[in-house]
């Protein structure tokens, strides 16, 4: 199922075609080469002072780490995320030393995830980001502490049909149109 973004002028097809499906093909796998490419895309993101504050915990469906991440994912996400080929936990490392504005590490990490997502789409994968997980449990399970914090979990895999989702919220949302604020609402001042 496609949900192409409608734009006032044409933009790159990867950007119009990317969306966040919840129906993952439960048989699909992700190769070492594809996973490496996704992380290379993230690695080469720009960051403030080139601090590169992003870190990752990689798991594939069927391994112990995947199971542990699944256990930390909250209710609604548990309906669909376990079918992903991989779950990647994204950790941000907040350096205080030398960082004038520490929250920028979160911004930098978002840039890295965005690059990962675009490379994934280019390779025929889908990525669904999740904030819906028990952060305390995740940090404890993977011994993440101090300046490190798990901020998001990525479900990565191949898209399945909407009908594969169980009836309810997840399936309903799968077919809803994608929405955005009008561009004019985003511009505080200045002409296009
Ligand atoms: C940081 C972040 C966290 C998100 N957390 C969840 C989540 O926990 N569960 C979920 O179903 N979707 C989650 N989403 C997906 C958003 O709901 C989705 O990106 C948004 O509705 C826009 O839809 P689109 O990505 O299909 O364009 C998250 C997205 C982002 C960027």
TrEMBL record:
Entry keyword annotation includes DNA-binding: no
InterPro entries: Nitroreductase, Nitroreductase-like
Keyword ATP-binding: no
Protein keywords: Oxidoreductase
SUPFAM superfamilies hit by this protein: FMN-dependent nitroreductase-like
GO molecular function: oxidoreductase activity
Ranges of residues in domain Nitroreductase: 16-78
Family assignment from sequence similarity: Belongs to the nitroreductase family.
Designated name of the protein: Unannotated protein
